[in-house]
Design a protein that fits this description.
This protein is an alpha+beta fold and about 130 residues long. It has helices at about 1-35, 75, 105-130, and strands at about 35-45, 55-60, 65-70, 85-90, 95-100. Strands 3-2-1-4-5 form a 5-stranded antiparallel beta sheet. It is elongated. The model has no long low-confidence stretch (mean pLDDT about 85).
Length: about 130
């Protein structure tokens, strides 16, 4: 009985933590959509020595500075167009270095992953408790 209670508490705590992270990520995406500045960026190829997948997005902020956005491993999976195409980028005025792609999949993918993790944790807690 004690081990089941500890596992239930662990699953519930993890589920609540994941739910808090999902809410935070969704609110960050909402904040970007409401207050963010949108600019167009160009997808450029990575250097030949860089073995990571996908391209880099080059854009200019509101002050005219050139910045590079690395969408990481989520870029090709979340709608990054091919090299040479233009893509919308959104960022907050005070922090253009934290820019994101302005695609629905790219903005909401982290919150979906956290919600899925939260559901799995809560479901494990329900199965353990019964």
């Amino acid at each position: 009985m004690g081990a089941e209670l500890v596992l239930l508490a662990l699953c519930t705590g993890s589920g609540l933590g994941f739910l808090a992270l999902a809410t935070r990520s969704a609110l960050a995406a909402l904040r970007l959509s409401l207050r963010g500045l949108r600019v167009m960026g160009q997808v450029r190829p990575r250097e030949a020595s860089d073995r990571r997948w996908g391209g880099l997005v080059v854009f200019c902020d509101h002050l005219g500075r050139g910045l590079v956005l690395d969408p990481g491993w989520r870029g090709p999976l979340c709608g990054l167009p091919p090299v040479g195409a233009s893509v919308p980028v959104v960022y907050t005025r005070n922090r253009p270095a934290t820019a994101r792609l302005w695609t629905l999949r790219y903005l909401l993918a982290p919150s979906f992953g956290w919600f899925l993790s939260s559901t799995l944790a809560f479901g494990t807690g329900v199965v353990v408790s019964s």
